[in-house]
Amino acid sequence: MKRVKIKVIGQVQGVNFRYSIWQEARDLGLVGWVKNLSDGSVEIEAEGEELTLKRLIDYSRSGPQEAKVKSVETIWEEPTGEYSSFSIPT
């Protein structure tokens, strides 16, 4: 198990990016969350198998068709096991 923090920069708000990440993460069996940041980027925190997390990172490089991703930053960490599902916090 691993944990990754992902920051996605570009035109990623208002294009269903969070929802598409939520769907992808759930389909991949990951736990964690995705949220919009005030600077216009999207932040993702996810836990799961490393290979599966890499698939989520790859997906975040494109996202839904309307998104225009400029860059993706990742930070790998040790998992905490604090999540039981994948959510979009309000």
What does this protein structure show overall?
- This protein is α+β, with helices and mostly antiparallel strands and about 90 residues long.
- About 25% of the residues lie in helices and about 40% in strands.
- The protein has helices at about 15-30, 50-60; strands spanning about 1-10, 30-35, 40-50, 70-75, 85.
- The protein has a 5-stranded mixed beta sheet with strand order 4-1-3-2-5.
- A hairpin with a 5-residue loop joins strand 2 and strand 3 (about 40-50).
- Helix 1 runs antiparallel to helix 2 (about 50-60).
- The longest helix is centred in the first third of the chain and has 12 residues, at about 15-30.
Explain the layout of strands and helices.
Elements: E1 2-11, H1 17-28, E2 31-36, E3 42-48, H2 50-60, E4 68-77, E5 86-87
Parallel strand pairs: 2-5
Antiparallel strand pairs: 1-3, 1-4, 2-3
Give a short summary of the structure.
26% of the residues lie in helices and 39% in strands.
